[in-house]
Amino acid sequence: MYCFCLYLTRFDCAKKTFKNERFLGMYRGSAVNLLLITPEKAIKLVVNDYLRYKFTDKKTGVLSSGGAIVSGAGAGLCQIIVTTPMELLKIQQQDAGRSGAAKSERITATGTALKLIREKGIVGIYKGFRATALRDVTFSAIYFPLFAIFNERLISADVTGLAKGENQPVFIYSLCAGIAAGAIASLSVNPVDVVKTRLQTLKKAEGELSYSGIADCFTKVYTKEGWRAFFKGGFCRILVIAPLFGIAQGVYFLGIGEHIVGFFSKK
């Protein structure tokens, strides 16, 4: 949850949120995440693997740097069908308790989605999809090649002795590689994430700027707040994204999906 002008620091934001909304206020928007985060990550990981396979030279078994970047970018592009509505609804939930926003009615993800669909059709829940695509395509183009490099280096070094072969996945190596790559990629795209979040905030506080698009938002944020504004929430984002991708990548590399498919295919 991004701290706008109402909050001085991430700690001030957390303190005021807890004071005004108590413990549950810290978990606004979690229901949307619980429902949609799994299919979102599944799409991202599977599409990246598929594209990496397609771009790998069948004679040499080598995937070029360009192929790795394009594979990651393609995975990021495919996931926005789930990510855009998930982020839009989550942001409205998280922003609902902010002072200056409307308090007359209880805001729910379902209510927000139905209202947007009634007023603007299905495209209503895809507000900010261009900014979301820009963020996720860039993130994935950075993250997946970095993860592959870090993971390969860790397996080659094998300081724990857990790797039994070059292609043998090791949970702890995948976890560490995912955390490192996730931290770098998330901070790299933080400026775009700030812009996306502001574009997707439907209810504006008094005196808060409105934006007509990505370029307009970038210009106004830079003019009014300077370049530092583009890295607001960067530390909090790393705290969430790095372990999230580390765990997801570690579990994915254990081959749980393949075991489940194999179990049911035998029946």
UniProtKB/TrEMBL annotation:
Biological process terms from the Gene Ontology for this record are: malate-aspartate shuttle
Topological type in the membrane: Multi-pass membrane protein
Q: What is its main location?
A: mitochondrion
- Kindly state which keywords UniProt assigns to this record, in alphabetical order: Membrane, Mitochondrion, Mitochondrion inner membrane, Repeat, Transmembrane, Transmembrane helix, Transport
GO CC term, one of those recorded: mitochondrial inner membrane
Alphabetized InterPro entries for the sequence: MCP, MCP_dom_sf, MCP_transmembrane, Mito_Solute_Carrier
Q: Where in the cell is it found?
A: Mitochondrion inner membrane
| Placement of Solcar repeats on the sequence | 63-153, 169-258
An example of a GO molecular function for this protein is: L-aspartate transmembrane transporter activity
Q: Which family does it belong to?
A: Belongs to the mitochondrial carrier (TC 2.A.29) family.
What this protein is called in its record is: Mitochondrial glutamate carrier 2
The organism of origin for this protein: Magallana gigas (Pacific oyster)
Q: What is the lineage of its organism?
A: Eukaryota, Metazoa, Spiralia, Lophotrochozoa, Mollusca
